[in-house]
Design goal:
The complex is a heterodimer.
Chain A lengths: L1 E5 L9 E7 L4 E8 L6 E3 L1 H6 L3 E2 L5 E6 L2 E15 L2 E10 L10 E3 L1 H4 L3 E5 L4 E5 L3
Parallel strand pairs in A: 3-9, 4-8
Antiparallel strand pairs in A: 1-11, 2-3, 2-7, 5-7, 6-7, 7-8, 10-11
Chain B lengths: L5 H13 L4 E5 L2 E6 L2 H10 L5 E5 L3 H4 L13
Classes of the chains: A mainly beta, B alpha+beta.
């Protein structure tokens, strides 16, 4: 199972995919940026609240290095994330607001990417997400 | 290849053209919320108990020229 995507605006400077985020009661679909420079998957506070995500008891807070310095952010557990037909359950997500005018508020970090096979064909302006198994 | 159907892409492009520079909350073919902020769209969806909406942004022409965090310019040396 997996999907190929054309890179945004015909180049591979941004890897964007629609994701399904599932919480306790609700689900929401959002566009997300695949960010191999981010250790964690990031969701904004409003989305975390909407999905009623619970605090991760194993790691309640994480320290992150951002453009504006080191910050401490809450870590919560996403019931399920679905991207390209691939499902990940109980994913640790960092709750952090990516300021406007950023057109994407969800980042798919390495704690998700490491569970998948990501192939970037920059020359063909295409990337693929697949189940590695 | 894009995983979405061409009709869906066409519909989304039409919605985006109607709400440039805005955040949009869409469920199936119903535009539920249009706002300047992502937060406001989520707050409104929660207030209305909407499950399974798609939240996305319609960039302006100028914003389409930008990278995610940085303006990308090609310099000639």
């Amino acid at each position: 199972m997996g999907f190929s995507f054309w890179c945004a605006n015909g180049n591979c400077r941004k890897l964007i995919s629609r994701v399904k985020l599932q919480g306790k009661r609700y689900t929401v679909f959002e566009d997300a940026l695949i960010d191999t420079g981010a250790a964690f998957t990031v969701v904004p506070p409003e989305t975390a609240e909407f999905l009623e995500l619970e605090i991760d008891k194993r790691l309640p807070k994480a320290k992150l290095v951002t453009a504006s310095g080191i910050i401490e952010t809450p870590v919560r557990v996403l019931e399920k994330l679905e991207v390209a037909g691939l499902e990940t359950r109980e994913l640790q997500v960092v709750v952090h607001k990516i300021p406007d005018p950023a057109p994407m508020k969800v980042l798919l970090g390495m704690n998700l990417v490491e569970k998948m096979k990501l192939v970037v064909d920059g020359k063909a302006s295409q990337f693929t997400l697949e189940d590695p198994d | 290849m894009d995983s979405r159907l061409p009709e869906e892409i066409g519909f989304l492009e039409m919605v985006k053209r109607s709400h440039i520079g805005k955040w949009i909350g869409l469920k199936e073919t119903d535009v539920l919320v249009v706002s300047d902020s992502h937060d406001e769209v989520l707050r409104e969806l929660r207030k209305r108990n909407v499950d399974g909406a798609y939240v996305f942004y319609s960039p302006t022409e100028m914003e389409k020229q930008y990278g995610f965090l940085f303006l990308v310019r090609e310099w000639k040396l």
